[in-house]
Design brief:
- The chain has 145 residues and is an alpha/beta fold.
- The protein has a single domain (8-139), classed as 3-Layer(aba) Sandwich (Rossmann fold), CATH 3.40.50.
- It has five helices and five strands.
- The protein has helices at 17-28, 42-50, 75-84, 102-110, 123-140; strands at 8-13, 34-39, 63-66, 93-97, 115-118.
- Helix 1 crosses helix 5 and helix 2 packs parallel to helix 3 (75-84).
- The longest helix has 18 residues, at 123-140.
Length: 145
């Protein structure tokens, strides 16, 4: 199913409010319309994806942007659970984190991340990276229905 022309539902999983603001602004500055949802740790991410508790009416996102280092449950744990779950594993998960550690990159792909992207430090570079992710997953690839 081609996603261009439709609203792309994105779940942002990150505990850093500054990063969340910059990612939202980057998505909002593009030409595609987004439905952006934000959670701040791994527990909330899984509740959202499983539509539990206060997220009972949550939509199934087309894309998850996942930070690795968060409180309570980190991104590695979330990724392992999502990719092991028959209903959730088809959702593309892009690890978007500050870590350039080879062990983090390797373990993320080992847990079946769809991509691993290191957050640049400058706003302009982060905007370009997020727009690139959006262009790829929102306009080039065919996402599952």
């Amino acid at each position: 199913m081609m996603t261009s022309g439709r609203v792309l539902s994105v779940l942002l999983v990150d505990d850093d409010e500054g990063d969340l603001l910059m990612i939202r602004e980057a998505l909002d500055s593009g030409t595609r319309e987004h439905e952006i949802h934000v959670v701040h740790d791994g527990h909330e991410a899984l509740e959202f994806l499983r539509r539990q508790g206060r997220f009972a009416d949550a939509p199934r996102p087309d894309l998850v942007l996942l930070d690795l280092n968060m409180p309570r449950m980190d991104g590695r744990q979330v990724l392992a659970v999502v990719k092991a779950d028959e209903e959730l594993r088809r959702i593309p998960v892009v690890v978007l984190t500050t870590s350039r550690a080879p062990a983090d990159i390797s373990s993320s792909y080992g847990l079946h991340a769809n991509a691993y992207v290191t957050k640049p430090m400058s706003l302009d570079d982060l905007t370009a990276v997020v727009k690139g992710i959006d262009d790829f997953f929102g306009g080039i690839v065919d996402l599952p229905p």
